[in-house]
Amino acid sequence: MKISKRDALTWFEFFSVLPEDEELMIRQQEIAYATFAQIEAVVNHRNAVLMSEISDLRTLESRTLFVGDERKFPPGCQSCLLGTGLSAVRKTNKCNIVCKFCYNYGELDDQPPVGEGMWEIGVTKFYEKDIDLLLSIQEKPTGISYVYLEPFMEIEKYYPVIRKFQDAGIHQHLYTNGTLATPENLKALGAAGLDEIRFNLGATNGSNKVIENIGIAKEYIKNVGIETPMTPEFYQMFLEKKQEILKTGLDFINCAELHLNANNIHNYDGENMYISRHGYISPIWSRELTLKLMKIAVLESWDVVVHDCSNDTKFARGLNLGSKSGMPFGGSNYACEFAKIPYGVFLPILNDENFKFLYEEELPEGYKPGEMMF
């Protein structure tokens, strides 16, 4: 069903005002899915045009796209897409800043603690001493990542745990906004055996202090990079400060396609959205900006990897982890992050006169407003 944009708008205006507990009828679901397919087809076409303009575009075994020296492709991402990572290790339930793209936006003060002296690994609580038992019983993952929320708020607690996983030969990477990093704690992390650190440079809109810390981190930690949701603000800031950023000697830039949940989606009201495979909902400009940055990186011969960590990449990640965790054929953890699809967020793109469907046809009999009786 190649629904027209006009008909899609009419139906989505109706869907957006339905009570939250009212489900769509089967034919209405078909209309919703046909609309999503029409929007996604345009997005994919526009992205394909941008990709065609990037020379030397590479893939990691067809699971993601990048440009640059493949020797600098982040090992943590290789573990995630090819190995048995990404295993999250959680400790810190607080953050020292607020970002509009944060998945916990508006709930940062309500995040439950992991527990005094405890760590959360695979939804199980461990004391530090239990990690030896864990490593002796279960198969070791290829990689783990320290997340949730800002590890540097109590970074000294991480050193002994990092040493344990280092001794076990497991690749470890850590996420940070970088504001609390110092030469001392970065050196300590390197000495403990941290393999990789990722700075969310967009969290501070390109703070000069954080850029400096990226350079310091490179002195002590082997793999150093940026991982930030791609937004217009980050894209503009990066181009303005690219010389200072590239001079740090960082290895990679992971440009994450921004996907939204119920906490942060209202910070992007009015933006043109699409839904990828009925899963992640994203502004259409996010991946477009990543591809534009990749093109610049190639034209200017940046000595870094720029990685397109897109919704397609997240889909591949889910399939890989599903295969490694014993899920049935086709099993994956890739899914929509909303209990009910927020149809209203697609009204801006359906109202946008400059966003045109590739091909349209009339609705079949029984699918037009006023005809649907069951």
Name some characteristics of this structure.
374 residues; alpha/beta; 2 domains; single chain; 36% helix; TIM Barrel; two-stranded antiparallel ribbon; globular; eleven-stranded mixed sheet
Rg (CA only):
22 Å
The helix/strand order is: HHEEHEEEHEHEHEHEHEEEHEHH
User: Strand percentage, roughly?
Assistant: 15-25%
Q: Largest beta sheet, briefly?
A: 11 strands, mixed
Q: What do the pLDDT scores average to?
A: 96
What is the CATH superfamily of the largest domain?
A: Aldolase class I
Largest beta sheet: strand ordering:
1-2-13-10-9-8-7-6-3-4-5
The number of strands is 13
**CATH-assigned fold name of the largest domain:** TIM Barrel
Helix content: 25-40%
Structural class: alpha/beta
Q: Spans with pLDDT under 50 lasting ≥5 residues?
A: none
From the N-terminal CA to the C-terminal CA, the straight-line distance is: 19 Å
Annotation field: number of helices? 11
Give the C-level CATH assignment of the largest domain: Alpha Beta
Report the CATH architecture of the largest domain. Alpha-Beta Barrel
Tell the overall outline. Answer: globular
Number of domains: 2
